[in-house]
Amino acid sequence: MFLLQATAITNDIVSSPASVPFFSSPFVLKVYYFFKIILIVYSGVLLFAIVLIVASVKPKKAVKEVKASIESIIGTEKEEKVKITASGWKEISKLVDSGEESSWRLAIIEADKFFDEVLRRLGYSGENFSERLAQVHPSDIENINDVWNAHRVRNSLSHDVNFKLSEGEAKKAVAAYERAMKDLEVI
Questions:
Q1: Domain boundaries, the chain
Q2: Which one, 54, 87, 122, 141, has the greatest CB density within 10 A?
Q3: Buried b vs exposed e over 71-104: b needs ≥16 C-beta within 10 Å?
């Protein structure tokens, strides 16, 4: 009998409202689930906003802003800068148009250096040309693969003394650099 009374008292204590833990009370659980739903919806809205912001960023616009900031720092006007760039590029064009393989080789090497300097001035970082070119977004330079191929030709010229260069290959490589610079609106 004593055992039955002890069990009955224990059952009363367990089932009484005072013995229900605060965090498992029905009210607290309802509030918890309400805030959980609100936070999930809020997270979804934030994620959607982030996607919209990222999708609206234009890489070319960023390149133009960098170029404008470089011009303001250097203190040169765009017209003067283009003239300097165009005059330097004319020398490379003269080399590639000559009929000598040694001039073609020099034209490709100089075009590679020239384009590397352009990338450096536009703010692309890296220890070498390949690292800087790897940072360029394909929407900034439509012929990025051609530039990579031109750079491979330049590397072959620099590292393989027996590498034979055709006039067509030389003109194609220099044209790739030129088109890339036009895409970047440097020349």
A1: 2-56, 59-183
A2: 141
A3: eeeeeeeeeebeeebeeebeebeebbeeeeeeeb
The fold adopted by the segment(s) 59-183 is Four Helix Bundle (Hemerythrin (Met), subunit A) (1.20.120)
Give the integer Cα–Cα distance in Å for 169 and 19: 87
In order, the DSSP letters of 122-178 are TT---SSHHHHHHTS-TTT-TTHHHHHHHHHHHHHHHH-TT----HHHHHHHHHHHH
Residue range 152-182, pLDDT digits in tens: 999 999 898 889 989 999 999 999 999 998 8
Q: What span, in angstroms and rounded, lies between the C-alpha atoms of 82 and 186?
A: 7
